[in-house]
């Protein structure tokens, strides 16, 4: 039961977990805010670019398609019935993750935090909220069948742990300037 729950939560969130990492690798280019300020502070900052957002969304969406292809084999190997992703759900998870992260940058700038500054709680769950909301809007039937309350609980516990581990790893590999 626990293995099934964790596997389902992890699998269902993979298209949301990948986009921000892909955006770091493919980012750069024109900032979404175009350098504009609000109240003397950047609206978002240089870290939120059109190219990174597009690349992250594409990566997450393509991952959902790939997971559909390998899902039956993985399900069989694990002995767990893993969800498949309608295209709208994969896209919603990916774009929602990017939008959640963009929203967090906006909140960070409004609170006076600079790019890269830690904002505990928000840093770990911003993309999850965005991904879940947009997936619910894009594919409501799939969302309610996949993200049961126990699955959501696992996502909310598992994600901060994964977030810390992957960010420290990216920092150690020189892909990020800070380990959070």
Judging from the principal axes of the Cα atoms, what is the shape? globular
Radius of gyration: 16 Å
Overall pLDDT metric: 90
Our count of helices gives 7
Written as H for each helix and E for each strand, in order along the chain, the element string is HHEEHHHHH
Strand line-up of the largest beta sheet: 1-2
Model description:
The protein has seven helices and two strands, in the order ααββααααα. It is mainly alpha-helical. It has a two-stranded antiparallel sheet. Strand 1 (37-38) and strand 2 (41-42) form a beta hairpin. Helix 5 crosses helix 7 (149-172). The protein is globular and about 55 Å long.
What labels describe this entry?
two-stranded antiparallel sheet, 180 residues, globular, mainly alpha, 69% helix
Structure in a nutshell:
By secondary structure, this protein is an all-alpha fold. It contains seven helices and two strands.
Which SSEs are present, and which pair or pack?
Blueprint: H1 2-17, H2 19-26, E1 37-38, E2 41-42, H3 50-78, H4 87-110, H5 122-138, H6 140-146, H7 149-172
Antiparallel strand pairs: 1-2
Helix pairs in contact: 1-3, 1-4, 1-7, 2-3, 3-4, 4-5, 5-6, 5-7
